[in-house]
């Protein structure tokens, strides 16, 4: 979990290696502040992506989540609805570098796609703060930033961290070109010959092991579920 925490923060402050830097979000320094939704504190809104289809936006959002939130399979993603182009995942974030803080933030993130937009909703936000005497997880709704400067600093630190992470995600969506068309099979998580690596990552997540041999790539998800790729597409399915 700690490794995943630092991975997300590292990605939040720099773009993924190899991605084109045109039409990026992180360079604008955009912030996504906390707001009230009834009694809950949330981060909500949307990002628009001109020239991208809804399917491409959803595919890229899923690919980003698999790469950055999942150690194997789809363990960081709790729910996926391909037809509605919606998924839910758990975000674990840390304090920004050079902030002087060592906090850990947890929240639930819901992403959905409609009309060229990625809609985001971060809720159930909590903090484990080293500065607190008790190391218990504290919901943001229990913080009092108006009376306690330390609570305000925690909230500001969280906003900086989640903003960097969202900007990184939006950068990836804006610049990556996914190779996805087998949506029916992805929706029921059915591997078939001809699926691309992108499609397999969206459907099944990261393989537990992978290696190349004799011009083929092998992804093993379990001892009875193995995919073989040739030229970037599934050529053999063992299940």
3D architecture notes:
By secondary structure, the protein is an alpha+beta fold. It folds into two domains: 2-175, Alpha-D-Glucose-1,6-Bisphosphate, Chain A, domain 4 (2-Layer Sandwich); 183-238, no CATH class. It is built from five helices and eleven strands. The protein has helices spanning 2-13, 54-69, 149-175, 183-187, 197-204; strands at residues 35-37, 40-48, 77-81, 86-94, 104-114, 117-128, 138-139, 209-213, 216-222, 225-230, 233-238. The strands form two sheets. Strands 1, 2, 3, 4, 5, 6 and 7 form a seven-stranded antiparallel beta sheet that branches. Strands 8-9-10-11 form a four-stranded antiparallel beta sheet, with no helix packed on it. A hairpin with a 2-residue loop joins strand 10 (225-230) and strand 11 (233-238). Mean pLDDT is 88; it is low at 1-23.
């Amino acid at each position: 979990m700690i490794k995943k925490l630092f991975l997300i923060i590292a990605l939040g402050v720099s773009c993924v290696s190899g991605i084109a830097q045109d039409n990026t979000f992180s360079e604008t320094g955009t912030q996504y502040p906390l707001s009230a939704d009834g009694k809950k504190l949330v981060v909500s809104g949307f990002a628009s992506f001109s020239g991208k289809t809804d399917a491409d936006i959803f595919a890229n959002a899923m690919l980003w989540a698999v790469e950055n939130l999942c150690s194997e399979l789809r363990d960081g993603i709790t729910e996926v609805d391909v037809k509605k182009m919606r998924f839910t995942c758990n975000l674990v974030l840390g304090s920004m570098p050079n902030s002087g803080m060592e906090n850990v933030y947890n929240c639930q993130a819901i992403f959905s796609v409609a009309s060229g937009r990625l809609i985001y909703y971060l809720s159930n936000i909590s903090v484990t703060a080293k500065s607190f005497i008790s190391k218990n997880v504290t919901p943001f709704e229990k913080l009092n930033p108006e009376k306690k400067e330390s609570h305000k600093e925690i909230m500001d630190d969280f906003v900086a961290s989640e903003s960097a992470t969202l900007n990184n995600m939006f950068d990836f969506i804006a610049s990556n070109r996914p190779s996805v068309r087998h949506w029916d099979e992805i929706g029921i998580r059915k591997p078939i010959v001809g699926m691309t690596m992108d499609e397999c990552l969206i459907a099944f997540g990261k393989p537990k092991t992978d290696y190349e041999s004799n011009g083929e790539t092998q992804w093993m998800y379990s001892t009875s579920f193995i995919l073989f790729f040739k030229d970037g597409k599934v050529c053999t399915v063992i299940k």
